[in-house]
TrEMBL record:
<protein>
    <recommendedName>
        <fullName>Antitoxin MazE</fullName>
    </recommendedName>
</protein>
<dbReference type="InterPro" id="IPR037914">
    <property type="entry name" value="SpoVT-AbrB_sf"/>
</dbReference>
<dbReference type="InterPro" id="IPR039052">
    <property type="entry name" value="Antitox_PemI-like"/>
</dbReference>
<dbReference type="GO" id="GO:0097351">
    <property type="term" value="F:toxin sequestering activity"/>
</dbReference>
Length: 78
């Protein structure tokens, strides 16, 4: 099956037809794994990132600073 390869910010995107994506369980917005095996590009459904994987990406450079919010100012105490 031939598909389109399109330009996107930071790389290219493969347009996978819906029926083909459904056959392997790929869904829009979900994680996928991409590998090169034997000179071929292999795409398969992936699992969402674990908390440990997400936290491994936190650095002092991308961590937001703390901020003071003051005393309750509305219905927060209900």
């Amino acid at each position: 099956m031939r598909i389109r390869v399109e330009k996107c910010p930071g790389g290219i995107a493969l347009v996978v037809p819906g029926p083909l994506a459904a056959q392997v369980g790929l869904r829009e917005g979900e994680a996928a794994e991409l590998d090169v095996t034997g000179g071929q590009l292999v795409v398969r459904p992936g699992s969402p990132a674990t908390l440990a994987e997400l936290l491994a990406g936190v650095t002092p450079e991308n961590c937001h600073p703390e901020w003071a919010d003051g005393p309750p100012a509305g219905a927060e105490m209900l």
